[in-house]
Amino acid sequence: VQLQASGGGLVQAGGSLRLSCAVSGRHYSAYAMGWFRQAPGKEREFLVSTRWSGETTSYADAVKGRFTISSDYANKTVYLQMNNLKPEDTAVYYCAAGPWPAVRTITYWGQGTLVTVSS
């Protein structure tokens, strides 16, 4: 399974971005898909994950109510809609695949996409 994250960029505080994670390879449907992020000088942080059926985990408190995960099974893509972005959301965002719930046990990582939120 290969993961390709995209959609990062520079945005002002209060703005929105949508990240995409294109999935390829065999047996991708066997895995849950998650989003993580790593800010400079901090550990990687779990945000949320989803089954291809649409079931999701709870969101990390830091993003609850502002970020939404979704998946498109036919197009093998997982999205992270990010609204009301804050400077503290600045980080490299990674998509990942692993056994449900894909929180601690991750089998595949994408390459990351940088999100920078200016104040």
Task: Please render the helix and strand layout as text.
Blueprint: E1 2-6, E2 9-12, E3 17-24, E4 32-38, E5 45-50, E6 67-72, E7 77-82, E8 91-98, E9 108-109, E10 113-118
Count of individual beta strands: 10
How big a fraction of the residues is strand? over 45%
Termini separation comes to 37 Å
Shape: globular
Low-confidence stretches: none
Q: Name the assembly state.
A: single chain
The string of secondary-structure elements, in order, is: EEEEEEEEEE
Q: Structural class, from secondary structure content? A: mainly beta
Question: Gyration radius, to the nearest Å?
Answer: 13 Å
Average pLDDT, to the nearest integer? 96
Report the biggest beta sheet as strand number plus sense, adding barrel if it closes: 6 strands, mixed
Helical proportion?
Answer: under 10%
Please give the count of helices.
0
Question: Can you characterise this structure?
Answer:
The chain is an all-beta fold. The strands form two sheets. Strands 2, 4, 5, 8, 9 and 10 form a six-stranded mixed beta sheet that branches. A four-stranded antiparallel beta sheet has the order 1-3-7-6, with no helix packed on it. A hairpin with a 6-residue loop joins strand 4 and strand 5. 30% of the residues are buried. The chain has no helices and ten strands.
